[in-house]
Amino acid sequence: MKLIRPVSDLRNNFADISKTVHETAQPVFLTKNGYGDMVVMSMEAFESLQFESEVYSKLQAAEREADLTDKRYSSKEVLQAMREAIGGEPVV
Q1: pTM to 2 decimals?
Q2: Which of 37, 48, 76, 89 has a CB 3.0–4.6 Å from the CB of 32, allowing a cystine?
């Protein structure tokens, strides 16, 4: 369930809002004059959201690229390319 509070609570109850976002890892939605205005979340939750968004974006790009070609790679070929990219031992 979304936690919705008036924006004035940010000023009046900052410590409570901070505790809530850190303990629950969920955002707090702030309203102004009854309408959505801001979202407050912990740094950890924000970084996690950014990471998930980046991964999702890269997966979408890979799917678009896969739609443009019929070339497919075996797991051995992928592992070999990954090892070469990081300077590791070749797969035999």
Answers
A1: 0.67
A2: 37
Residue 29 buriedness (CB in 10 A; 0-12 / 13-18 / 19+): middle
Q: Which residues, including other chains, have CB under 8 Å from residue 6's CB and lie 6 or more apart?
A: 30, 31, 32
Tokens of 20: 């809530």
pLDDT tens readout for residues 69-80: 888 889 999 999
Q: What is the largest CA-CA distance in the chain?
A: 66
CB 33 within 8 A of CB 10: no
φ, ψ of residue 15 to 5 degrees: the values are: -60, -40
What pLDDT is recorded for position 70? 87
- How far CA 74 is from CA of 7, 14, 53, 63, in Å, comes to 53, 53, 27, 17
- Is there a contact between 52 and 46 (Cβ–Cβ < 8 Å)? no
